[in-house]
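Help wanted!
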Amino acid sequence: MTILSKHTIYSIATRARKGLPLVAALLLLATSCREVLQPEPVDLLVDELVLNEASDVQPVRLGMYNAFRGLGAPMVIAGAFTADFIQHNGTFTVYNELGNKQITAANAAAEAFWGAIYNTVYMANFIEERIGSVPGVSEATRKQILAEARFLRGFAYFLGVYTFGGIPQVTTTDIATNRNIPRASREEILQAILTDYQAALTDIPVAYGDRVTNKTFATKNAVRAALARYYLYQQDWTKAEQFATEVISSNLQSLPAAFADVIFAEYDDETILEVAYANNSSDDPGTSTYGLNNILVGRREVIPSNKVILDFISNAAGERQQTISFNSTQQRGRDNGWTVMKYGSPDDANNNIHIFRLAEMYLIRAEARARLGRLTGSNGAQADINVLRTRAKAPTVTLTSQNQALTVIENERIYELAFEGHRWYDLKRTGRLDAVMSAFSPNWNTKFQLWPIPQSEIQRNKALTGSQNPGY
Amino acid sequence: MKKSSLLTLLALLLTWTVSIAQGIRVTGTVTSAEDGSSLPGVSIQVKGTTTGTQTDASGSYSISVPSSNSVLVFSFVGLESRELTVGNQTTINVQLSADTRALNEVVVTGFGAQARRNLTGNIAKIEGSSIQGVPVTTFEQALQGRAAGVQITSLNGKLGQGIQMRIRGSSSVTASNEPLYVIDGVPITSNNQGTSTSPQNPLADINFNDIESIEILKDASAAAIYGARASNGVVLLTTKKGKSGKTRFSLGYQMGSSEPTRRREWLNTAEYIELYREAAQNSINAGDLPANYMTSLESRFTRYAAGDRANWEQSLVDNNWEDQAFQKAPMGQLDLSASGGDNKTRFFVSGQYLDQKGILIKNSFKRLSGRVNLDHKANDNLTLGVNLNIARTQNGRLANDNSFSTPLQIVALPPITPVIDPRTNELSGSYTLYYNPLLNRDHSSNITTSYRTLGNLYGEYRFNDWLKFRTEWGADLLSLNEDEYYGKETGRNTGAPNGLGFNSFAQVTNYTTNNFFSLGHTFAEKHDIDGVVGMSFQRSDASYNSVEGREFPSNSYTRIASAARITAGSSTATNYSFLSYFARANYRLADKYLFTFSGRVDGSSRFGENNRYGFFPAVSAGWIISEESFMQSVPSISLLKLRASYGLTGNAEITSISSTGSTFLNNFAARGLYTGGSGYAGTPGQSPSQIENPDLRWEQTAQTDVGIDFGFFAGRLTGEIDYYVKNTRDLLLNVNVPGTTGYRTQLRNIGRLENKGWEFVLNSQNTTGAFQWNTSLNLSGNRNKILDLDGQVITGGFNNRAIEGHPIGVFYEIEYAGVDPQNGDALYYLNNENPDGTFNRNTTNDPNLAQRVVLGNPSPTLIGGITNNFTYKGFELNILFQGQFGNMVYNGGGKFQSANGDFFDNQTRDQLNRWQKPGDITNVPQARLFGANGTSESSRYLQKADFVRLKTLTLGYTLPNSLTSRAKLERVRLYVTGQNLLTFTNYTGWDPEVNADHLAGNIGLGNDFYSAPQARTIIVGVNLGF
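Answered by r_m:
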């Protein structure tokens, strides 16, 4: 048996003898080798390494948009499902509660929405805190990205304040601070939103380049659109009209001739901002509980309510009826056979979610003008409404009184913007929520003016103890 | 630790070595007179002085004596002492023979060895020889029923499949519950490295015929030397060493075959048609199906019967599909080893080839393994050696139990469907009720190949009689390749109309070094002190990649190079390290009073920076009462020892749940992390994926153990009784954090659980002389209880849960109340809680109204094994029974298999007892097609799974020397072994030892889902020694 030659063994022995003190010294590794216990993750990046140099900025900015995108589905769910647009048709508790107007503080959609808001806020704060100290970032880039961050944060708070009321205002990425943070007042949040929007308006670009980036990243028109919506909600009709007009007259967006493009196409002409999912890729919402295609088409957890079906099959809706479609094989029991079509599967390629589009600007301006008493003429509400009617190949309207005009606009917003996250918020700001919803559902309760602060949130954040919204 | 002070100490020790090295130096080895094995830990004293030493792990010693008149006293507990005058000898080799009054077993303790008599901790030892020849693929299976407090569960009867081992219960909810495995000092990779949800087993790479002994460290005193990784127990594997002398060859060959332990009974065609006609009629009568449904039913029958009405109407096809899932399962295994050497160099080399087919179609396992263990004594002071094992295993694998393509799901197909479609003369495919798994048999391959190198080098330097230093450098290199191809014929299952190929690689490199001093000295003849102190470092790096392709031109192309579309691909990597310092001291006073102190400081990259190092101390004491003078008057008691230990151990196997829901070892759980997978509109982005927790640390278990070791009648009856309490705190849980942080959950140390149990071991030599009969029995009970989960409910399996106040993984489900004799409705207990705390035992036929309750425990409360060994002349008979009691199994497949004709799955024959008319008393509800009558998950499908199994039976015959020597052979042994020959159980499924592979985990326990039964294997074999 000579597996090792004598020479080898001898040399190992000598080496061992010589190496012995060295080996013994290994025992002393205690203080000198702390780094041996810190191998770095390979697939993932430790947070302190994430934003240190200029080339890190873009991926973090995209991460922020990734978080922002998470607001899309909850916005649609809150705006459409809390209101009179849907009925429950599935098995998930979260949609049962929304469909039957029995929303509890444990509702998972509330928790998801809350989480999405603060994911966006976290990323915006992260960028705001770090970007100033990242070397090599040009002033222009820094300003632009800060503007984007502030806009996205402002929009997150906008959704938050109109969904939950005054919510905690998070201004840092410090976990300890953010763990224990009380609600801010509604006014404080509204003020913060305005500050963010106004700051963003100055520095944000008019455009980024190609069609896709112009429609999926925040542009100056997106900020104007947000301000138009903000002032509409504040009932500052003049400013609402002003910002809507700025968007419309910029001519950067235009209404596609066929309304079908709004439903079935991505990055259509009138999009001001939409949150985008890559097609056929792993970043698609897929079959998650809050994936809109899954809820509305795949599982049909919720289906259009009979009320909204009647709205859509009316003449006034015109081509916008394509927002929903009917399949007789699905009609049985409580299932009326109708399906919401606005959110396609990954393969359908229309799985993006509109945040702002041009039609809303026409509707904001129409409403502002109607409120300001300008119904007809080139500066009147009627013209704006008929732009949309004409595009939808629906009969035009004639406005005769302010009240009639407001009713027309309320309905027009259904035809045009249904399932894009507006209805519940619209009824709230016009003060018609309780009246409309009591007629729709016997379970309606005025407490549903606001969603509950997620129960889990109150349990985990001591500073929220006792500050649940009324009625929950 | 200060560098300078330690160096000074080292220098001092070296000087001392020089100064006392005078007089005559005597060296030698001490061996056992019975079998020639070396004896470590033998005490050697110069008579009348305080000078003394001990033998090392290989039984060698070296001592300086003042003169040639000196007398050396060799003593070892359990052996008779010998006194020898040195004279002019410098080498004194001594053989000690057994003192029949006590135990002489030597137990490996981790960084040392100890006589069982002196042990104060709890260590179970299994001799390698006792599991040799057991016809299983991996050594854990061979250990079943052989050690108290060790529960081993094969998930199912697939070869090479993952195995669950629980030592003294589950001590974690989310982290690993598997023990640490250490081979010759090297902690090895033992967790699943494959991509399938049915885990593979890296331990199956080990040829267990190379194993000399397996020690299982169970209590804190024994395990604390492995610190942060010892809470689940430690399994030490020691491989065989060469023995000096003539080179001995050993050749073994065994062959045999396997079959399932049980088959189930299914409906034949006539019964199937009868049941489903009745089920449809009942649903028509109830108005749930249209009145003309019978016509559609019959056309459906005809469709399933390959389009020929006569096939089902006249039973022309009457197919038992279950038979198709199984195959002939031959096995053959060849072992060759050689061992020998001289005084300086000893070697052990071995090779093995195992080729085994599984009982399920397409399941196979092959292992080719070679080993070289070499020890060389360079001079009186320096020994060095190498252990090297290279193995290749090739496992023909199967889809997990949840797949339509796994063989046993074939039982769902109706008996009216023929195997071969007479219209095409090919396997029935497109028209069958479900996918036909036989298509996978003929048109797919799924091969996992593992290359494994396990090796270590060591050097041991003896400074003087009482101090030596050992350094070990080990590596465990694992490379795993999964190669899968599914032909276009399997498209119904894969969704790939033109074939699907998948290939993955996992590479895990794992380096370890151990460096430690061992000391041993006897002072004033009655103070025996020995100990170790040292450090160890481990670093492990793993990388994984995979690729999937679709659209192959034909099944002749199976590699992804030929795929028209690459549909998925990924690569990932991870790593971790441990830096540890350990020490142990044993103090023995007057050979009666025993004390052990041990501890380890473990630092790991897995822990948060505020808790990077943990300290795990343990203390234990023993009192050998039988050594006291007052016990000498009771000669029938040969040993009576009380033991007690207390200590802390940790669990560092931190796991997380991935975004896809699978569990993975999270080496960076403490860090704040960003992930690059957060794209937006198709552009890459990064976003936070994990909140940091700088306080994150190991889960900590405090274990108390008290025990008695006893021996009666000159050691013919010996045993141990232990009681232990394991309290685990700082359980790692995903705690929800306020959303305002931007995160949802954080991994924190927050929960608590406990295990309490007892162990009883009894060994008896019932007869001695020509006819020898030995019995060994082990029994143990464990009760697990979760104390605190921060209010969380953690689920697994079909209905397993971790609930505070209950054992881990209890079945939590609605309770079946049988059948309403009036109308055949399945009934459930309401079980809502009354104001007085009792449960409402009224029943309902609406499962949604019934409340879920805790129904049973998936973990046994009592496990045991009993071995009887008979020898007479050349004959030997060895019988091992193994059993477990108190646990339940949930058959998740019940709602399909035994659903009183709810859908078209073939049914178990017991469904013929369905309710048919008012007044029928039965447990099977009325058959209602699509009626969901009793098919809810409920205790209807939960059963007691107590079993006793004739695990291993071996009958051997060793030819007499007179015969063998004529053939120039030293030894010829012929044997026949049966594994799993008999199983006694009331469980009506295939096998009560089961845990569906796709659900198996900490919480997912005791589930059956079309899981294959264990194999009953019978082999014949021959061992030749020459």
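OP: Thanks! One thing I noticed: The two ends of chain B are 54 Å apart (CA to CA).
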